[in-house]
Amino acid sequence: MPMILFWLFLGAASCASPALGNPSAPANVPALLSATARHQALTLCDEPVPLERQEVRERFEKEYLLTLGDPPQVILWLKRTRRYLPHITQSLKDHRMPDDLKYLAIAESALRPHAGSPKGAMGYWQFMPQTARRYGLVVNDHVDQRRNFQASTDAALRYLTELHETFGSWSLAIAAYNMGEEGLWAEILEQETRDYYQLYLPLETQQYIFRILAIKLILSEPERYGFDLSESDYYPETPSDTITLDCFQEVPIRLIAKASGTVFKQIKDLNPEIRGHYLEAGRYSLNLPAGAAEGFQPRFDKLLKAYLASRPNRSVTVQPGDNLSAIAEKFGVPLKALLIWNRIEMAQAIHPGQSLIIKPETEIDLE
């Protein structure tokens, strides 16, 4: 669809749908040509962006216009900012780092804990597994701290600080964050320049600085671009309590939810770094719904005791010739549930004499 028709379509949609409100009303968005013309002197992390170079201006305008052309995405960014950006801003201030670096998290993940890439990057700051582990994040089959907001933010700021010390400018540090420090060093050595704007880099990295710059411009003055959100439009922080829980054996997350007076989903949402349905043995810092910390431990201990006592009555011994599908069918339970209860994979072999959990702790009415 031609751009002008795109804007006309959105304009008609906003007029026909008052419930959409001002944030998506393109009538408030400046004409595209005048929007690009207004920018003459820009900085990112207090470093000037050489817009006087035609090639640089074109790269900037591409990201700027494409970002303006996706109002729903901008609205979602804005709605999430109150939940996350104040914490990143304070952390940057504490580390004496440029405030503009907070926009990297938006460019990387749109502030979503489960954002992932085909290459294996994950979380708010899109760490690759090996880089995450290098900066102290736990990444395994049970826990992925790339999805933990505070832990991953602390790691990202330490990584960016080291990149800045290595490359000497924030533009190069940000480029290295995107493409990897070894790859950037190789290009610097081969091309004999340390100027980000003159380096020929992977196309994603060539546009990366400009994407962050576009996000900065629009989110710094959203009303100027027609995104006039009211206080009630922003997603609020989710109040929570933090506890330390020692697990001396694997524990179903549903027990933590019951002891907290909530449901499995809320515990997972408050602790996105937890993978699967069980906590392995170990010590955990967990977020619970606000107010749930008081009296949690005795409630949890009581539930855990009952859970452990119920296991023998919920088990069956594997017989010769049995397989997972046949056992699930025999006892009338979903095969997927059988796999979850026993922490096994479909392709995993079972053996005669092995004990399997074949029913839940309590009967659930699904009617």
Assign the CATH topology of the largest domain.
Answer: Lysozyme
Give helix and strand order, one letter per element, not per position: HHEEHHHHHHHHEEHHEEHEHHE
Percentage of residues in helical conformation: 40-55%
Largest sheet: 2 strands, antiparallel
Can you identify the CATH class of the largest domain?
A: Mainly Alpha
Strand coverage percent: 5-15%
How many structural units, i.e. domains?
Answer: 3
Give the CA-based shape: elongated
Unreliable segments of 5+ consecutive residues: 1-30
Instruction: Please state the second-level CATH architecture of the largest domain.
Output: Orthogonal Bundle
The number of helices is 15
Strand order of the largest sheet: 1-2
* Radius of gyration over all CA atoms, rounded: 26 Å
Termini distance? 47 Å
In total, the number of strands is: 8
Structural class: mainly alpha
Mean pLDDT: 88
Task: Provide keyphrases for this structure.
disordered N terminus; mainly alpha; Lysozyme; 3 domains; Membrane-bound Lytic Murein Transglycosylase D, Chain A; elongated; two-stranded antiparallel ribbon; about 375 residues; 15 helices
Task: Describe the protein in words.
It is a single chain. The chain is 48% helix and 9% strand. By secondary structure, the protein is mainly alpha-helical. It has 3 domains: 3-233, Lysozyme (Orthogonal Bundle), CATH 1.10.530.10; 240-312, no CATH class; 318-357, LysM domain (Membrane-bound Lytic Murein Transglycosylase D, Chain A, Roll). The strands form 4 sheets. A two-stranded antiparallel sheet has the order 1-2. Strand 1 (42-44) and strand 2 (47-49) form a beta hairpin. Helix 3 (54-68) packs across helix 10 (203-220), helix 4 (71-94) packs across helix 7 (149-167) and helix 11 (253-260) crosses helix 12. The longest helix has 24 residues, at 71-94. It is elongated, with a radius of gyration of 26 Å.
